[in-house]
């Protein structure tokens, strides 16, 4: 996600980021929860994205890291490129193209 290899919308980055924060930092606490620069949610991480992640994170009180990770995976696997690994290839015309390697099954 952060590297851009798994493209997704702003809304999806927000949802996945909120579960990441819950898993990494635990319950939201306005006095202690601080999103530092190490927690990146998207290739184009913005303050707006961070604010939306925080809004969702506030709703997860009591969610365990394992539950947050399960919710993350449930949402990530719905992405069209989830489990697809692109590889550079050349066809007989020597034109760069891509092939796919599916890393999961449905």
UniProtKB/TrEMBL annotation:
Q: What is this protein called?
A: FERM domain-containing protein
Q: Kindly give the InterPro entries that the UniProt entry links to this protein.
A: Band_41_domain, FERM/acyl-CoA-bd_prot_sf, FERM_2, FERM_central, FERM_CS, FERM_domain
- PROSITE patterns from the xrefs? FERM_2, FERM_3
Identify the residues that the record assigns to the FERM domain, covering every copy.
Answer: 1-106
- Record organism: Hucho hucho (huchen)
Q: Which GO terms describe its cellular component?
A: cytoskeleton; plasma membrane
Which superkingdom does the taxonomy of this entry point to? Answer: Eukaryota
An annotated GO BP? actomyosin structure organization
């Amino acid at each position: 996600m952060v590297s851009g290899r798994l493209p997704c919308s702003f809304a999806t980055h927000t949802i996945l980021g909120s579960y990441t924060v819950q898993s990494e930092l635990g319950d939201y606490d306005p006095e202690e929860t601080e999103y530092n620069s190490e927690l990146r949610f998207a290739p184009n991480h913005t303050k707006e994205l961070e604010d939306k992640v925080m809004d969702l994170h506030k709703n997860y009180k009591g969610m365990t890291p394992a539950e947050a990770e399960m919710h993350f995976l449930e949402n990530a696997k719905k992405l069209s490129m989830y489990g697809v690994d692109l590889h550079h290839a050349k066809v007989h015309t020597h034109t760069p193209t891509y092939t796919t390697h599916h890393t999961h099954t449905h």
